Amino acid sequence: MPGPLAGLVVTELAGLGPAPFCGMVLADLGAEVIKIDRIGGQTLPIGTIENDVLNRGKQSISVNLKDEAGIDVVLRTVARSDTLIEGFRPGVAERLGVGPAESLARNPALVYGRMTGWGQAGPLAAMAGHDIDYVALSGALHSIGPSEQPFPPLNLLGDFGGGGMLLALGVLAAIIHARATGEGQVVDAAMVDGSALLMASHHGYLADGWWRDERASNLLDGTAPFYSTYRAADGGHVAVGALEPQFFAELLAGLGLAPDEVGPQNDREGWPEMRRVFAKQFGGRTRDEWAAHFEGTDACVAPVLSMTEAPGHHHNRERGTFVEIDGVVQPGPAPRFSVTPPGIGRAPTAPGNDTDRVATAAGFNKEQIVKLRESGAIA
C-alpha cells in the first residue's frame, strides 16, 4: 500500500541506529527513502545485510563521498528530495561537502535532519557516546533499575524513542512548514534532548512531590506490588499494572484474595507484605494459566513474552503487529491509518543495488552513469 507519506522523497546518509530507524519509519509510511551507502564503508557493526530490519523498504546507491563527482550525485539526489537525514558527528557532513549549506543551496526547501547524541552544539557536542551515555545525562537512566544501581532499558530510550522517532517527528514538522513557505531548515535532534523529553510527566510528578528522585521507591518503577512482575510456577513471569482502585479490586478477585488479606492499596508500609502475598499466589500456576485466567478482565495482568513468543500471541497475530519478510520476523509498520494504510515495500537491499535507478531519477543519463561507475564515483 502507498501509505500516508506517498510522494515524499527522503535521502538518508547511511549510518547506525537512530537515523536508519527514522528512515525505516518514514519508508514504512510510504516515503521513497534513498540510502546513500559509502563505497567501502562499514555500516553494520553486527549482523547481516539481509537481516538489517532498519533498512527495509529503502533503495540504496553506493557513492564515493571522497570524490567530487560522487558528492555531486548526492547533491543532485538531494535536489529532488524533501528531506535529508544523517547521523554523523557535528561537522562531518560539512567536511564531506554534503552539509546544510551545500544541500540547501541545491534545494532551498530542503529539511536537513541531523541526529546526534549530544546535539549540534554544547560542551559535549564533539564527544563520542552511545545510548547509555545520553540517557544518563538526561536523568532518565537514574530512575530505572534496582536501588543498588541504574539498569539500561536496552537502547530504547536514547537511540529509538528519544532519537530516531524524535527525528522523524521533527523532519515531518519541518516539511509541513517548508511546503507552506518554501523555506527549508535544519532539524537538530539530539538523544539527550529526546530522552529528557520522554521524562516530561515524571518531572511534573517530581515537582508535585509525588515522585521521589531515587530508584525503587516509586509507583511506576516496580516498587508498588500492583505495578510489577511476578514469577509463575513454570519460571515464566506475568506483568501486573493494576493502578486504579477498580483494577486493583479485579486483581484481588482474580487472585482469590480478600482486601483484608493484603491491606490498603496505597499503604506503602504494607507493600512488602502485599508483594509477598501476591508472589505466593502467582507462584501457584504457570504463566500461561494466569494469562488465560485474567484474559478479558480489567485486572491489568499480561504474560511477559519473549521476542520469539510475542509474534505468535493471538492478539498480535490478529492485528498483524509482526510481519515476516523473506523469512525474517519483525515488527510491522505503525501506527495504523484508516484511509492510507502503510506497508513494507521491500526487504533490506544490498548497498548499491539501486544505483542506476536513483542516478537516473537524479537526472543522469546512461552514458553519464557509465562514466561515473568507471571513475569510481558510484558503484
What would you note in describing this structure?
The protein is α/β, with parallel strands linked by helices. It is built from 15 helices and 11 strands. It has helices spanning about 20-30, 70-80, 90-95, 100-105, 130-140, 155-180, 190-195, 200-210, 245-255, 260, 270-280, 285-295, 315-320, 355-360, 365-375, and strands at about 10-15, 30-40, 60-65, 85, 110-115, 185-190, 225-230, 235-240, 300-305, 320-325, 330. A 6-stranded parallel β-sheet has the order 3-2-1-4-5-6, sandwiched between helices. A hairpin with a 5-residue loop joins strand 7 (about 225-230) and strand 8 (about 235-240).
Notable traits:
single chain, 379 residues, alpha/beta, Rossmann fold, formyl-coa transferase, domain 3, 3-stranded antiparallel β-sheet
End-to-end Cα distance, whole Å, is: 30 Å
Shape call: elongated
How many separate domains? 2
Counted by DSSP, the helix tally is 15
Helix fraction bin: 25-40%
Question: Which class best fits the helix and strand makeup?
Answer: alpha/beta
Tell me, what is the CATH class of the largest domain? Alpha Beta
Order of strands across the widest beta sheet?
3-2-1-4-5-6
Strand portion, in percent?
5-15%
- The CATH superfamily of the largest domain appears as Crotonobetainyl-coa:carnitine coa-transferase, domain 1
